Amino acid sequence: MTPLAAFGVGLATAAVLLTIVWVIQLFTRNAGLVDAVWSAAVGIIAAEYALLGDAPAGTRILLAALALAWSFRLASYLAKRMRGAPEDSRYAAARESWGAKADLYMFGFFLFQALIASILSIPFLVIAYMPEAPSLGVALAAIAVWFVSVVGEGTADAQLHRFKQKPENRGHVCAEGLWRYSRHPNYFFESLHWVTYVVLAIGAPYWWATLASPVIMAWLLLRVSGIPTIENKQASEKRRGHDEYMRRTSAFIPWPPKD
């Protein structure tokens, strides 16, 4: 199968999965499931490319293993977080602002999410069709980046979860563990994760195309749906220590806090 045809398979997969989620939310009135399914869809696309590509088998197996482990860790965490919780404020606000056309607009938004998943998955396509396997050094470097990013994101998620479970922390901002050094360490490590495939694709034709994914992900988290949404919500809730935390703590890259 050609790379273009494989891309079509990946796009169709994401579109079908997110359409199913859209149908589910028609009954539950909770669109939050899309976040977990979107994460799983990206891993599934990577596995499809690994099956359809013609790169050396070891390269494709490594690609599928890294992408699936990342995606299902994140998808499981998001699914567990949303279980029994009200609809995320982002989707609730969108539903309210869209009014009578909310279901139609939500469907369009979900399909746009499918397109984003496919675009972000382009590095998987590049790797799945590499004519030669990466060198051992390149493979080990990619695994090292993946390990640091996935463990870092998982640690940040776990620390925030534990913080929120303590009643005495209600109304406070989390400034413990990795959150002492970054206001959004989970987002930093999520962006870093996409660098894994930039490294793994070194030497491949169209290697430069893999650079788009970490840039797009960082832009989305920094400017669109990540940090702005969360920090505006925290400010509106007037959480204790918020202003001081904003002043002292790096927004993205973990860094020692300011005095």
Automatic annotation (TrEMBL):
It comes from Salinisphaera dokdonensis CL-ES53. The chain crosses the membrane at residues 6-24, 31-51, 57-75, 104-130, 136-156, 187-208. It comes from the Bacteria. The keyword Iron does not apply. Signal peptide: none annotated. PROSITE patterns: S5A_REDUCTASE (PS50244). Keywords: Membrane, Transmembrane, Transmembrane helix. The keyword tRNA-binding does not apply. Pfam families: DUF1295 (PF06966). This is Steroid 5-alpha reductase C-terminal domain-containing protein.
